[in-house]
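Exercise 7b. Backbone tokens:
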């Protein structure tokens, strides 16, 4: 068009220096990906030439450069004062005539194409923005639902001024960018009516672990600024790339966010947009469907393939035409830079939990909490303090870099606070809802993001452990090291540790943490007392029925584990709660017997085939069938615990087949937990029904030695290395080797005692399954080395 304005449809990544990374990327997608199903709204962009010529007006550039040259950006008050002065100068300087005329002409063309009723988004795009080694995301302004030429011009002026927001100035200094070398382009783009639809952010990898085979999607009602800013706790979805590309159901995980507010158009109001509450019933439902999550992931994959790198993408669903649109795409700049070194953080002691939310960054930090509700109090934050606030925006960056940890009431894993925390390498817990009320100003706290998706703020300065491991240095070993992983939240993270799969995935963790309700209560929901129904209803509201909630949550947990560790086997042990543990679930006391010794009571295989529990267990079967047969994650194998007799073995195997899980069909292997003396004594007979054993050293030890492992009075006698226990293990291993069948061990013993792991290796065991935090040390021990 001209040196002042360019159509987005005519731009590409070669134009970054002219229109910035954001606008160049929009043009790149319009030109190259529109015919591949990626829908990007059109518009125009002002050029860097236009911006630089504007700054040359009336000596504006000289005044700005002089002010910045004298500025100490670590003096937050001086930074705020200088930034405000510069922005005022920019707003008071009129556009040069050629730029004014070019904007007029471009808008006239758009109005002719789209009509006068359409509104526009005016976004910033810095010429150094969104390059592979820097993230300028969110530093400059975005204006939504802008109507009419005069308003567009005013917001372009605001965009130009936003290059001198406090955070933008500080970031350029800290990253070594010369202020004068960074220019700004304003993008004017057709608005998508997500104000009556939904919107969010997605990444083509897991933002916490860097796992590359998932697309992570956040979604909420209304315009996307609420998600980007962290003003809402959004819904979350994980979509598995290989499963999606195979044409199968591919949503691994779904988390319902609070979605308390949304930004919508303010029709006839004083401002273009306004923030309103979301109806209570809508908060408990997902803001997008599985089909929409999968369609978003397809577009994300198309974009990632084109750019050949992980991407950070903003999307919107139009509430009028129902279509999904991409409104921004830029390189992901944190996890894509990580190398082969694994950092390990672990709490050494557990304290009182004050608050909790979504964990960001996998680290642990501790310090004095400073509850800051306004930037006017920013000087109260000293280096090493823990910043506690409602939410953050770009102006908070100068004090965020001082913090040992960051805690917010609001926000999800793609909000501003989360993005900056990852960039800074600082642990953050976002979306706590009430952290600013629960944490006292001046209180000593420890912030742990090393325990899964949930981050915890503990009272006091607690001890924690930090270490690093260079993964490329791991030696060869003569057996398979698998892992005991029950927590799907940690699956992507743990998959980065050298492994041969999951030797034990406990369904109890999924049932306890992702469901929390007794399965019979969900099957008999309509017959529950009103108080229990009221307690359970909001927990299951996003799913089509109570029964579907139970099945779907188990399927989500198992599929996440399977996707993280594929193609390695993932051996899923069906539920092995004891009656007292089931009683701890919501409504549990209604259904569970009171047993004198639940450890050897109503558990394992005997539960599955009982009339009282079989319908509950069949929901587990349906979930596993869904993961294997519908999603195609056939690396899932099934393990049956606590099989006392051969009759129980036969009955359980038959019941699995009746529920569509027939041994050998679709490659299904059935493994038995070998944890009772009867299992070792009759090992050959039990192997008629199963494809191998996984030895449970905890129960085998207590039942061989007649010890209650929960009794402190005799705890000193509990040792898996006892000769009698070893004799049982040797019998089981020998029987499996003689039949050419799998034999592994998944009990606590090898994790606690590397010398036992070595003995098992000498016995010819197929695999040793360890707790993730012991894998490296045991691996090195078995290789004949000692970890430093």
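Sequence design result:
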């Amino acid at each position: 068009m001209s040196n002042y304005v360019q159509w987005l449809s005519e731009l590409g990544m070669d134009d970054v220096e002219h229109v910035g990374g954001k606008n160049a990327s929009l043009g790149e997608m319009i030109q190259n990906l529109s015919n591949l199903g990626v829908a990007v709204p059109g518009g125009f962009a002002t050029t860097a030439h236009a911006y630089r010529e504007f700054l040359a007006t009336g000596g504006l550039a000289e005044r700005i450069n002089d002010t910045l040259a004298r500025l100490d950006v670590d003096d937050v008050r001086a930074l705020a004062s200088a930034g405000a002065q510069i922005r005022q100068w920019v707003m008071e300087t009129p556009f040069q005539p050629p730029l004014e005329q070019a904007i007029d002409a471009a808008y006239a063309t758009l109005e002719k194409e789209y009509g006068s009723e359409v509104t526009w988004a005016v976004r910033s795009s810095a010429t150094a923005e969104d390059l592979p080694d820097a993230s300028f995301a969110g530093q400059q302004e975005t204006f939504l639902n802008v109507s009419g030429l005069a308003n567009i011009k005013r917001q372009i002026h605001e965009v130009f001024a936003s290059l001198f927001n406090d955070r933008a100035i500080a970031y350029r200094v800290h990253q070594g960018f010369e202020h004068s070398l960074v220019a700004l382009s304003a993008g004017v783009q057709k608005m998508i009516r997500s104000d009556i639809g939904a919107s969010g952010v997605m990444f083509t990898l897991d933002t916490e672990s860097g796992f590359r085979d998932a697309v992570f999607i956040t979604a909420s009602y209304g315009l996307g600024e609420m998600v980007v800013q962290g003003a809402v706790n959004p819904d979350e979805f994980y979509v598995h790339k290989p499963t999606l590309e195979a044409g199968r159901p591919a949503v691994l995980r779904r988390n319902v966010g609070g979605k308390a507010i949304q930004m919508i158009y303010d029709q006839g109001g004083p401002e273009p947009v306004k923030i309103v509450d979301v109806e209570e019933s809508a908060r408990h439902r997902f803001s997008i469907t599985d089909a929409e999550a999968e369609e978003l992931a397809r577009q994300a994959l198309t974009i990632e393939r084109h750019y050949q790198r992980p991407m950070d993408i903003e999307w919107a669903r139009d509430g009028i035409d129902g279509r999904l649109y991409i409104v921004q795409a830029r390189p992901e700049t944190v996890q894509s830079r990580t190398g082969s070194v694994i950092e390990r953080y672990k709490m050494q002691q557990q304290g009182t939990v004050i608050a909790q939310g979504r964990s960001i960054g996998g680290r642990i930090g501790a310090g004095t909490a400073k509850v800051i509700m306004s930037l006017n109090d920013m000087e109260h934050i000293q280096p090493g303090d823990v910043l506690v606030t409602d939410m953050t925006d770009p102006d908070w960056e100068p004090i965020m870099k001082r913090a040992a940890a960051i805690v917010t009431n609001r926000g999800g894993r793609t909000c501003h606070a989360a993005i900056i925390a990852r960039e800074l390498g600082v642990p953050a817990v976002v979306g706590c809802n009430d952290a600013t009320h629960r944490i006292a100003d001046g209180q000593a706290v420890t912030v742990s993001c090393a325990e899964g998706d949930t981050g915890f703020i503990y009272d006091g300065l607690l001890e924690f452990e930090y270490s690093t491991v260079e993964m490329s240095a791991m030696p060869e070993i003569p057996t398979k090291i698998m892992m005991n992983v029950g927590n799907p939240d940690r699956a992507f993270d743990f998959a980065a540790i050298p492994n041969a799969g999951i030797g034990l995935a406990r369904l109890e963790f999924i049932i306890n943490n992702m469901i929390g309700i007794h399965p019979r209560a969900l099957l008999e929901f309509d017959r529950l007392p009103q108080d229990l129904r009221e307690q359970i209803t909001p927990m299951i509201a996003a799913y089509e029925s109570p029964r579907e909630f139970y099945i779907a949550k188990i399927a989500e947990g198992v599929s996440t584990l399977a996707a993280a560790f594929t193609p390695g086997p993932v051996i899923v042990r069906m539920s092995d709660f004891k009656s007292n543990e089931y009683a701890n679930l919501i409504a549990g006391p209604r259904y569970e017997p009171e047993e004198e010794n639940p450890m050897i009571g109503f558990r394992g295989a005997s539960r599955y085939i009982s009339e009282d529990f079989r319908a509950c267990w069949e929901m587990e079967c349906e979930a596993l069938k869904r993961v294997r047969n519908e999603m195609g994650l056939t690396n899932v194998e099934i393990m049956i615990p606590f099989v006392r007799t051969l009759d129980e073995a036969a009955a359980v195997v038959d019941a699995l087949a009746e529920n569509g899980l027939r041994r050998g069909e679709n490659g299904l292997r059935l493994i038995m937990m070998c944890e009772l003396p009867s299992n070792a004594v009759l090992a050959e007979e039990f192997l008629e029904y199963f494809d191998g054993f996984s030895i449970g050293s905890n129960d085998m030890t207590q039942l061989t030695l007649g010890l209650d492992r929960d009794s402190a009075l005799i705890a000193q006698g509990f040792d898996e290395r006892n000769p009698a226990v070893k004799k049982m293990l040797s019998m089981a291993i020998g029987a499996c080797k003689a039949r050419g069948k799998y034999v592994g061990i998944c009990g606590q013993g090898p994790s606690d005692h590397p010398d036992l792991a070595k003995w098992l290796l000498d016995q010819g065991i197929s695999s040793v399954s360890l707790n993730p935090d012991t894998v490296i040390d045991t691996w090195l021990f078995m290789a004949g080395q000692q970890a430093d």
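Instructor comment: Residues 546-565 form the longest helix (20 residues). The mean pLDDT is 91.
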